[in-house]
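Board notes (copied after class):
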Amino acid sequence: MVIKKLFLLLILISSFLYAQYDKNESIKKKDIEEIIIDIVNDLKELTEIATVTKKNEAYQPYIVSTFSGKELEKLGIKNLKEALELIPGVDMTTDNIDNKTPVFRGSNPFAYGQSKLIVDGVVVNNVMFDSYNEFLYMPIEIIKRIEVVRGPGSKTDGINAYAGSIKVITYAEQFKGMKTQDKMFLNIGSYEYRGGGFLKNYKNGALNIFTDFYYQQDDKFLPAGKDMLSTGTYGNYNSQFSQSGDAPLWTKNYSLGVTLNYKDFTLKARKLFYKHGSAYGINYMLPESDNHTKFLNDYIELGLDRYVNELKVAAKVGVKIDEFYSDARLAPPGIVFPNPLDNNNLVQYTNGFYGIHNTKQRTMYHSLFFDYSKIDNHKIKFGYLLSREETYKVTTKTTDRFGILPGLIDYSDTYPFFDKDAKRDTLILSFQDDFDINENVTISYGVNIEDNTHIDPQVNPRVASVFRIKENIYKLIYSRSIRNPSWQELYTINNSSRVGNPNLKPEIVNAFEAAYIRKFSVDSYMQFNIFYLKNRDQINKINSQNRYENAQNTDIYGFEFEYKRMLGQKSKFCGNYSYVDGEDDKGEQLANVAKHMIKTFLVYELTPQIDVNIIGKYVGDKRRFSFDSRDSLKGYVTLDLGFNYENLKYNYSVNLIVKNIFDADVRYPSEPDTYTEDYRQEGRNMMISFRKEF
């Protein structure tokens, strides 16, 4: 029946195209044949994707939002960060080194690791911060599909994210009988942005090798208010050295990814280099223009997927290397600090205080998971993930702490900024069963048991039910998850602006969710979901010692509404509204969280070759902590306008996008008693993109 419908659809499309042939001589017979072939291939790919993603995200036991890379390209979305800003309930924040992180449903906006980023099945959060800022700038041309789960859990074996998970699928994903097209792209834009890259696929019998590469850089500087010295935190005498000016936010970034498939074996490898201006300074003091941080994130993973009798076996073994490097002026000329050996005496650094800080972490892991579906109406998955994280290099070079010797002194052994013996072993046992009671009701239940060298064993159950009544879908979900402290929170030492605490407990969330989805067609739907989150032992360092502590418990509640509608063959409207509120155990309302967010976009077909797109976003006011005397951070409205031209004959497209066309004042909150002003983001800017497939 499905084949007949597809065949009929092809006949109708063919008839339409041939009818247009007489009206538009620019469409040749050869072009029509190529278009029909493309349509057939697209339909095959959609069928394969539907199988891989378990029919459709609407029927999965999660609250899921999905975007395709092609869709985002037409919208003028530049990278993964901009794509995530379209997801309901997801806001963005940053810190003093401009380490950006998505905030899911208002959960602990000053913490990293609240969510997990999974690229082609590999968790890429770095060990140092448990963040993935360096991957947020992955160009959208590299990405085939993005699947975002809001709430605890994830769709990846053994990974139980705390507030949400982001699954990025690149074009390395292959479907049987199909070949990914080669592609090249070039981008230029404001702040002297320029970038480009390519996708290349090679196939020979059972061997398939896919490679992607991109390079990008800019020269961005944005105004910053007075730095932390103005608050008197470092003493009244040092207040005179407070600075304001332009924060260095320039970037150089490249990445090379390789995926090799041969029969049942897969090899995945990626090298990522991310160099960025020191932003607002490691110690919240404005750095010099050429000061910088570097993040390196490299991994290699070997996988085997094979059927053994009635079991599908998936085995993985991998190594990931993370590196954090900083070379910057940490304090301005004239600054006075206590003598390291005698706090009653002071040392003045006439030429300022400089430092090089470098740490490398290695993660080795292996996993073994089994799929078993021979029991009627059950799909059972179980297995384990075992990993070891360890620091294998720490370098600390600074100005002579006693103010006597010139140049930088190596304190790697005597006064390191990080515990060089840090290591952690983690074992995760996982079980999940998706039970189809009948064709309209599915129950999903499972548990992750996690144990590592720093915490007591944690049992994290998850239960979800999905009910289908014609085009109406209902979901009920309960889940528990934890966030282990990051290594910055555990092992930072000899740093007065952040003090590690090896006795930290994990953050815990118990989440209750319910959703209603009304499907109008394959591509059109309405979704409404509510959530209640009980967060316990949340971690921050907002205290006089700047020491990371399990400081508060927070109850968060809210709802999200999504609407997506096709307006003809190519035109599309999508909009969402999210509301979040809550309070902590001291009765204080959520701080630094936008209660209201609205996000919309429209793609409108002007001609068969030209689309116009509009993206509108509203992020509401953010109240401060009660002890923060600053006014609430004002909300903002941004509007982006773009045009996309697509040439079917030569298989290329050109996209022009003007972002924030009304030059709205967009800011992310700075921590209390640091910078007096919040961190300003880009004003009006533009980008032109050229893409060609081969």
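Comment from the instructor: The helical segments are 2-23, 29-52, 69-75, 80-84, 487-491. The two ends are 34 Å apart (CA to CA).
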